[in-house]
Predict the structure of SMI1 / KNR4 family (SUKH-1).
Amino acid sequence: MVPAVTHTDWSDVRERLARLSAHPDAGRVFGAKAHRWTLEPALSAGELAELEGELRVELPEEYRSFLLTAGRGGAGPAYGLFPLRRVDERWAWEGDGAELTDRDTLHQPFPHTRAFNPAGALPEPPDEDDYDTVEAFNEAEDAYWQLHDRVVCVPDHSIGLLYLCHLGCALREALVVTGPARGQMWADDTAEGTGFRPLRDSDGTRLGFARWYRRWLDEADATLA
């Protein structure tokens, strides 16, 4: 479970980012060349209220406080936090994989508390050596991936998940907004065939947004020490 204590003081974040950005080897930190250590402006209380009204849900407190006092996106783990912007008169997150967040169902509970793999029940993909012709193999492979997409690539698996960043190779990390795991950070590793799992600290504790973000800051400090 996420620890009962939440961490909502972000007053040091911009100073830490400025210090990291000024380091001569700042580009060595993974993803830094994408987000450039820059946070976009924070949301106003009115903008946050408008966002939550559109989503029909109150965001978990640690992320909510980050939006209000630190920034609406930018510098963060991997290639950075997906920024919030007004798109077609609605608030939306932007980035590689941000579209996986379904704003219309974000208020519905994410039902899972343990790692799960939608692809776990699929057969092994076809082996070219088992087919007499290239055409037969291609037909079997097409059928397999159509089945894969019907089983794995469906929105139902990510209801209640707010996608916040990508790590490349279609790997993403998301915040559980609703359901029994609310406030936890989860990995979507479906691109590697291993499904969804809660992110954990070195001691096995499940990560909430604040520890997830601050662990990245600490690791960046260590990389540039």
Remarks:
- The beta strands are 84-87, 90-93, 161-168, 171-176, 185-188, 196-198.
- The CA atoms of residues 142 and 150 lie 12 Å apart.
- The chain is about 30% helix and 15% strand.
